[in-house]
Amino acid sequence: MVQESNIVVCGSARVGKSTLINALCGKELAKTSNSLSSKTDQMEKYMLNRDYISSNEASNSNESQYSITIWDTPGIESWTKEHVQEHISRIMLKSNPVCMIYCASPGSFARLDQLEWIIESSIKSNIYCALVCTNKYSGGKQSREQLLKDFHSLLSRYRPMTKNENNVKYYGDAALCATVNSIPFEDEDRGVEKGVEGINELLFGITSSLKGDKLIAWCHTIADNESFWSAMANQLAEVYKIARPIAEEVLQNHGKDIAKALIPFIIRAAFK
Ligand SMILES: Nc1nc2c(ncn2[C@@H]2O[C@H](COP(=O)(O)OP(=O)(O)O)[C@@H](O)[C@H]2O)c(=O)[nH]1
Ligand SMILES: [Mg+2]
C-alpha cells in the first residue's frame, strides 16, 4: 500500500524556502537561487519515495511504501487576498498536508492579515503550522526580533504558548515558531561568519509535536538528514521513551542508518 503525504512550504520570494527544504531533507532536492531576478513562478513538487518496514510487532508483513510530496510554492509577490488564497490555501486545503511551513526572512515583506488567514485556515483544518524565520543573519537583529514578535502574536491568538525551548516556541499540538540559518552565512563587510543554526531544533520541534500518521510521514521526510538523527537521537529517545540501552545500541551500531533504526521505535510510540 502506498501512503501519500504532503508538506507545504510557502512564503515570499527569496526568503530561503528552497534552501530550507534542502536543509531539512538533508539533500539537494530543491533548486535555490542567488540571483535577485530569478524566482520560481511555478509550483515545484519534490517527491520522496520510501520503502520502510515499520516493524510493528503486531503484524509480520506491514511493509508500507510512503510517497511524500514537498510543495515548494512560488514566492508570494503581491500578497493580495486573491493571490494568497489562490496559490497557497488551495493546495494547502486540497492536499491536507502533514505540516505547513511558512518562511519569512528578517525584513522581508509579508501581509500579516493574509498570513493570519493562512494560519487560521491551517489550524482549523488541523494542519500543523511551523512559522520559520529563515536566513536569520540576512537582516539586522531588530528586524529578526520584530518578525519573531509578529509570529508570536499571530500564533498566540489561536493557542497559548506551551513551551519555549532551544529557541523554539511551541503552541500546543497546533504550531511552533523557530529561527534558522540553513546554510553557512558570511558577510565580509560586516565581518560576520555563521554556521548552520536552528535546523535540528526546528526538526525536533515538529517531530515531537506531530502524532500518528502525520508523525510517520514527517519522519520519512527527514529520514536522510543524518546530522539531525545523530545529533538528536538522545532527545528523541527521551521523548519517545526508548529505553537507554536500546538508544545506545542504535547510536553505536547504526552509523548512517540511525534514522532507519530509530523510526520504528518512534512509530510504535506514536500510536500508543
Ligand atoms: N547564508 C544563508 N543564505 C541563505 C539562507 N537561506 C537562503 N539563503 C540564500 O538566499 C537566496 C535565496 O534562497 P532560496 O532558498 O532560493 O529562496 P526562495 O526563493 O524562498 O526559495 C539564495 O542565494 C540562498 O543561498 C540561509 O539560511 N543562510
Ligand atoms: Mg525557491
Describe this structure in words.
There is one protein chain. The protein is an alpha/beta fold. The chain has one domain: P-loop containing nucleotide triphosphate hydrolases (Rossmann fold). Helix content is 40%, strand content 22%. The protein contains nine helices and ten strands. The strands form two sheets. An eight-stranded mixed sheet has the order 2-3-1-4-5-8-7-6, with helices on both faces. Strands 9-10 form a two-stranded antiparallel ribbon. Helix 3 (112-124) links the parallel strand 4 (99-104) and strand 5 (128-133). Helix 2 (81-95) packs parallel to helix 3 (112-124), helix 5 (199-209) crosses helix 7 (226-239) and helix 6 (212-221) packs antiparallel against helix 9. The chain is globular and about 50 Å long. The two termini are 22 Å apart. The relative contact order is 0.15. Residues 55-61 have low confidence and may be disordered. Bound molecules: guanosine-5'-diphosphate and magnesium ion. Guanosine-5'-diphosphate binds next to helix 1.
Give the class-level CATH name.
Alpha Beta
Mean pLDDT: 88
Tell me the CATH architecture: 3-Layer(aba) Sandwich
What coarse outline follows from CA principal-axis ratios? globular
**Overall tally of structural domains:** 1
Uncertain runs = 55-61
Largest sheet: 8 strands, mixed
Query: In order across it, which strands form the biggest sheet?
Result: 2-3-1-4-5-8-7-6
GO molecular function: GTP binding
Protein name: G domain-containing protein
Domain G: 7-94
Organism: Adineta steineri
